[in-house]
Please model this.
Amino acid sequence: MWYIWDLSILLSALSLVIMLFLIARRVVQEHRDSAAADQRRQLLTALIAFTESRDKEALKAAVLGVPAGVAINAGFEFISLLRGEERDDVLVAFIECGLPTLVGKQLERGNVADRIHATEMLAALGSEEAWGRLLAALDHDRSREVRIAAAIALCDLGSLPLLGVALDKIGVAGQRSRRLIELFRRFPRSRFNELAVHASRVDAVPFVRAAAIDALARAGGFGFSDFFAGLTGDASPEVVAAALRALGHTGHPEAPAILARAMENEDWDVRAAAAESAGRLSLPELAAPLSRLMDDEMWAVRYAAANALLSSGQPGELLLREIAASEVSRSQRTASLILAEGPAA
Model:
């Protein structure tokens, strides 16, 4: 009996100790958060004052007077709002305060999110040591997402290795990441030939080839239209779909014939891409094959075809209205929905 009472008292005391510990932990955490917020406000005030006074010594004192984490995060947030000479002056002060070294340590020791953030900050700081640290991360970091982030930062600095080398460092597993699209879209025009060469490689990962085609279509202009037209005969459906969507951006003299053939492809993504490009180019001569796609088994294909008909001028819209007024079917329901929505944005 006494053992039960003793155990109850012990458990009660233990619960009280745990509760007191949690309360103390909460108080300490709130105090730290409050102190960090005050330090952040102090640094931002000094940064704003610097844009007016250009007192570099006062700014350096403010940066060195707060913890490294506060200086890194608040400083990066502030310089993202600046342009021109003001931004350059703040960056010089940050570099003189040793911020690139602190960010470099975060790149080496932080968690994945912190390391990705560090690559962005090193690219913004643009110091002499940034290139070496980013290249080391591209070479050795254990996370492929960090390696891709390092590649993006190096591209922003104009120091990315050759595309084939960079992709080898990222690794095959990382070559399905959506961030590769972001990397390719940041390529300077002077390096578009690398994207074109990689898009042509039949031994490359289809997703990477498609991402390269997308980047060229958005920034390369009409000069790559023949290149895209040639890729519509590729063995990879993913590459063919990307090439068809690219033709929708650039146009091509043979686009109507190419798109009409693609609308009969056995791969639904290829058919949908052909319909999307037909709508983007507003080709009324493709109304007939588009109307046949309205009965496609895949919803994405029917939706793209209906939007294309609506975008191809009065004949296409009349045909879409005829389908909407016909007997109930999947093509009729799709046509009615698109007419109710209006033209696609």
